[in-house]
């Protein structure tokens, strides 16, 4: 049995002559909150539409809970709920009526409506016209609409786009509640790492249609561990003296190695000076995740 809610194998998609998704192999573990990150135009929405079978390409290899979506379309779609681009809301109907309408369409009992309103924190606004909702309330209603069929997998395309800090926190808390209390797997796209950093358990970073990083949030954090950067007059001799120490980067007369401790850094300084090397600068550096994200996405 696959432990993955979503798996794509070498997914490629073209709009005319433009390849917008390139050889994409996503692995979204069951129960995860998977942050699907990338700058504007990276191919996130296109990928989500392929996952929902709204777009198809000849090279499609999409597995939902281990089963090929092309041969199990209806069964796969039943297990998914989605909020892509703007939520499909009738502004002249109340939040409650929008949900009742969706239940009728899907042949689901209407008693789910109160539960959904409560889950997304819209009970008090249930009878207000949805057209008068704030952006954040509309997004939450959109999520409630995606949840009425009780899907195991939720695909949310930039659900916090345009929201104020409070709206962002509300969506973040809702995602955490859905994953932890209701055992949903959530794929959530964003162009801002900071927005999903505290929510996601796993991250996939995409740029120009290519997957540049995929792993747990801790693995991403590991990439931003502190380093020591040394600038010297004799780089070759310095590297020889460093012996088996891992060299993370060598650029001109500077070398970057992993930071162990302040003691180690002082010892390195002494070692270099005792061997006649001029140490122009020595210091620690640490990339915050946002800079790391920019670094990763500017590489391709
Ligand atoms: N219907 C379309 N026809 C032609 N090109 C398209 C179409 N939809 C998207 N594209 C192009 O495909 C590329 C990927 O777009 P996509 O919307 O998937 O990116 P995204 O990562 O979701 O970006 P954003 O954060 O801006 O929504 C872009 O260059 C976009 O211009």
Our measurement of the CA-to-CA distance between the termini, rounded to an integer number of angstroms, reads 35 Å
Q: Helix- and strand-based class?
A: alpha/beta
- What letter string, H or E per element, gives the SSE order? EEEEEHEEHEHHHEHEHEEHEHEEHEH
The CATH superfamily of the largest domain turns out to be P-loop containing nucleotide triphosphate hydrolases
Strand content: 25-35%
Helix count from the secondary structure assignment: 11
Tally of individual domains? 2
At the first level of CATH, the class of the largest domain is Alpha Beta
Question: Can you summarize the main beta sheet?
Answer: 6 strands, mixed
Provide the fold topology.
Layout lengths: L3 E5 L2 E5 L2 E7 L2 E3 L3 E5 L6 H8 L10 E3 L2 E2 L4 H6 L1 E4 L11 H12 L5 H8 L15 H13 L5 E5 L7 H16 L4 E6 L2 H5 L4 E6 L2 E7 H6 L4 E6 L2 H8 L6 E3 L2 E5 L3 H13 L4 E7 L3 H9 L3
The structure holds adenosine-5'-triphosphate (ATP).
The site of adenosine-5'-triphosphate has 11 residues, from helix 1.
Explained architecture:
The chain is built from 11 helices and 16 strands. By secondary structure, it is of the alpha/beta class. β6 and β7 form a beta hairpin. α3 packs across α4 and α5 packs parallel to α6 (165-180). Adenosine-5'-triphosphate (ATP) is lined by residues 15, 20, 38, 40-46, 191. InterPro entries: AAA+_ATPase, ABC_transporter-like_ATP-bd, ABC_transporter-like_CS, P-loop_NTPase. Belongs to the ABC transporter superfamily.
